[in-house]
Amino acid sequence: MTTVAARLTDVSKDRLEFRAVSKRFGPTLALDRFSHVFEPGRVHALMGKNGSGKSTLIKILAGAIAPTSGEILIGGEDCRFQRPQDAFDAGVVTVHQELSLIPGLTIGENIFLGRLPHVRRFGLPMVDWIALNDRARDLLHEMGLDLDPRREASSLSVGQQQVVEIVKAMSTDPRILLLDEPTSALATREVKQLFGLIERLKARGVSMLYITHRLSELLEIADTCTVLRDGAHVGTVEMAETDHAGIVAMMFGAAAHATRPSRRDIRRDTPVLQVAGLRRAGHFHDISFDLHPGEVLGFAGLLGSGRTEILRAIFGADAADAGSVRLHDREVRGASPRQMCQAGLGYTPENRKEEGLVQILPTADNLCMASHDRIAPHSIVTRAAEDPYVHRQIRDLSIKCGDPENPVQSLSGGNQQKVVIGKWMNTEPSVLFFDEPSRGVDVQAKRQIFDIIWQKAAGGLAAVFISTELEEVLEVCDRILVIHDGAIVAEVDPTKTTLTELYRLCMEGPTQ
Ligand SMILES: Nc1ncnc2c1ncn2[C@@H]1O[C@H](COP(=O)(O)OP(=O)(O)OP(=O)(O)O)[C@@H](O)[C@H]1O
Ligand SMILES: [Mg+2]
Fold first, then answer.
1. Which ligand 1 atom is the nearest neighbour of the CA of 57?
2. Model confidence pLDDT, tens digit, residues 270-303
3. Residue 72 DSSP SS3
4. Of all atoms in ligand 1, which is nearest to the CA of residue 231?
5. Cβ–Cβ under 8 Å, residues 483 and 491
6. CATH topology classification for 12-101+156-252
7. For residue 48, which atom of ligand 1 is closest to its CA?
8. Per-domain residue ranges of the chain
9. Which is nearest to 8 in space by CA: 205, 251, 173?
10. % of the chain with per-residue pLDDT over 70
11. How far is the CA of 421 from the centre of ligand 1 (A)?
12. What pTM, to 2 d.p., does this model score?
């Protein structure tokens, strides 16, 4: 028979306590004497603006980095893990902010990496591929995913990779699960599935630390919210006793809001980009639209609908099979991304880690690398020439990078995202594609990015904007194309469409 006292001790064995944990990276105090007790069996949100120390806290707990000082206890026992494997063995499992699947391995191999199931055949231990793929398929199915576990991870979109990472973490039966922005690449449907799984884990007594920038998720999933500001613990509140405004005030000191400038009149006589009948077999077909100077055009669609693939093909990163792309009235289909860039088209990709930035190079180099033609017309690149370009973006986008000579990988996730945008702003394009520009950036930085898009549009920039968060597409864009199954199925006016209606169009396509 289990007594109440026995249950209580049972529960307290997973209580997670931080005692004055600090982490210093050179001059940056990323975490400043953080102390808190996280009770087991609950979902604890971690909030704070970009660079406030959230990922650092999780990485320390996960054994990925060592704290400069302080103690961590789980169930009263000292748990300063030396290596990620130690944390894993203790049941502390992490889904990191930056994706980490091994591209050349299959989905199944990635999920069971380091613990591949074995059978004995002819007296020898062999990998049991059948069991591995069966188990992987079941797990994916549980998450509502119809993916073949034998597929290579490299063939997955960012959103699909994210789901596989989550499935992988769930499959280990964790005691404490750390999720660093697990939903930033997910669409509404996947988010719902993830929340279902989180609820189930919670019922099993698993504790979760959950980092997000999406305020709307807090009320839905979190039990408590812990706010960090510049590495310091501002406070922890019960979600039942607070609201969004209270949390935003804790994050920023005061609530920050920018309002959209009134909609401009867009001259529709001379389009800057004209796409007609564009097709890439197996990805999208019959894509035709015009984009005008000063216009912000939204692509709304679910994960895997083809939004990114269309932009990549226009930009020349993937080949299209048929159709035409005219930029400034010149046929450019088949041009390389480099030629596109010279012709005035820029593309901020959704996958900043692989396509957006060179991680080991300084922030300054990353900000300038797409605009050397402009900065140094005679091929002599000097820091003096680059400086104004670097500082303008750091200022306009409020990039928190300390010294711009530090490698960009030392920046927090959201600040890296801003560097990708800054890099393309420096090319002064006439057309710019924004693929998930607000992914991983805090609410205030998001406003800054939107403001910049609107400002540049007012100055004549034509933009295409993609976001998995349909609220943002409605807010930011002048006109929206709904993409469903690789085709444009509707054009909507954001001032005349509700969120529910847009969501329905994205889910189901047009009504027959
Ligand atoms: N390896 C590193 N070297 C140097 N500085 C670092 C390193 N990792 C993090 N930092 C710095 O520590 C601070 C906190 O970073 P952290 O990644 O924890 O922020 P975050 O709260 O997760 O932000 P975001 O919401 O943007 O992901 C930042 O100023 C960052 O630049
Ligand atoms: Mg982070």
1. 18
2. 999 999 999 999 899 999 999 999 999 999 987 7
3. strand
4. 14
5. no
6. Rossmann fold (3.40.50)
7. 21
8. 12-101+156-252, 350-428
9. 205
10. 95
11. 18
12. 0.73
